[in-house]
Amino acid sequence: MNNPLHTLRLPSTILRITYNAPKTYNPTPIRPLLRQLTTTRTLRIEAPPYLNDAERQIFDKLSQSLKPSRLDVQDISGGCGSMYGLDIESEMFKGLSVVKQHKMVNEVLKEDVKGWHGVQVKTRVPQGGE
What we know:
This protein is of the alpha+beta class. 28% of the residues lie in helices and 27% in strands. A hairpin with a 7-residue loop joins strand 4 and strand 5 (83-89).
């Protein structure tokens, strides 16, 4: 196997490492490589099936723009769609104040927010480099 492609699947993460393997293939050397190599992570989160159409639209906009590792969208208006609760965890918030994080979210949803009574936003950076 000349250039084996190893895929390690983690929750919401796909990690791919390619290297030249010796003629006698032994997967053990991959563990140290995981620590040494700079990797490209592709985060993919999918909308939960219980979201209604409006919640899914908000979820999709935020997913595309902010590349979150965790995202919860909930209609907290009792079902009329006039107020939403958003809980977002994204690497894009790294190094930003909470105010700037919230401004990023509001910028993505600025057209939608015009028709709402309010929005509750919670933002954070993922812990431990995940």
